[in-house]
Amino acid sequence: MTSSTSDNPVEVRILDELRATIPPDQWAPWFEEVEIYNGAGRITFQVPSPLHSTFLQHRFQGIIENCTRKVLGSDSPFRVVFEVKEATSRQLPGKNSSTPDALIAQQKNARLALKKSLTFEAFVTGPSNQLAHAAAMAVADNPGGSYNPFFLHGSVGLGKTHLLQAVGHRLQSAGIPNVIALSCASFTNEFIAALSSKKIDEFRTKYRKAGALLIDDIQFLCDKERTQEEFFHTFNEIYNQERQIFLTSDAAPSTIRGLSERLVSRFRLGLVVQLDPPDLETRMAIVHRKADQRGLELPNAVVEVVARRVRDNVRELEGAVLRIESMARHENRAITTNSVSDTLDELLGGSSTRIDLRKIEELVSVEFSVSSEEMHSKRRTRSIVLPRQVCMYLGRRLTDCSLGEIGHHFGGRDHSTVLHSIEKIRQCVEQDNQLRVSIEVMENRLRQG
Question: Are residues 284 and 271 in the same domain?
């Protein structure tokens, strides 16, 4: 979501409030392409399609109004209005926007538009995403040949959409015809519209003849049997013609519930890569990059404050930079570690609690009924190895410690042992729901102090 008048504090402040309120997994598909305008008592949200307008009014009208009221003040009169960008050019003469024909036209425009800023050059790499970045580059340089399909999964806000769009840019620049990049929700909605209008053949021709198919958030296929059936045949057609398929998801193929086994097996035909949260140095580099893009000069101490507070979501790092910009330019506050800490408290909901290896060890020891002495020992029985590996996994996710520091804490183990332990737990949580839930509970408790 962008503000067309970035120098106007009202738009910027509404944007900040919404970004802090809307769940991250809902922000990307429904708010990234929205533009906001303020004038004459109207707060206008320009959206890509009538479908977008209907969904936002149905799902987010109250949230939008509450955020706007918080910015403007409870006594300020205003009206929230939704407008469709270039609506007249999208709608056929004499057609109502709710007809199947119009829905198909809307969905064609609801594709995940390639953004100029989401390129390989703009992607900040680090240990957590080097493999994903390198694989995406290989896919872009040798579509259909290097890794096909390429399945990238990870939590919200780590850069999956960025890499998908970067591949789309590179394929288009290379002259690959008919590169289709869109969200899974758009694919599903267009399929439904095609069924309703009895234009399923046109739908199939368009997607099965794609030069490359890039779909974001493929997990939303779950429990949609007819859409899964259609996508299965689309996948096979493109794959058999050795054209590139790139899918992103918030979970590994085998852990997406409600997904047919044959689709899971197709998704695992090529390369499956997990995108992990960035380490401290990478987060600092991202903050520097985002600040530079907005013409902000942030001292290293301030950059470190931001990077230590926001650990698991690159998108939240960008939101933090936007909030600091608003603080400096519209509230005339100096950018210091104290002012930024206060601002982040407002944005993120309270001050952070320092998480260290000792706290992780104490919690895991209780959860697995193992003493600290046993976890530091050389014993390798499963009842001790598993909690030790969980500690290392959580230590890597929740602290800024290097692999060497984690290994030293747990009995002087070397870098490779820690790396093996982390990868072992990653594999286990994909297969063992009980362990996954237990780790999630511990992680939440640690984050909440």
Answer: no
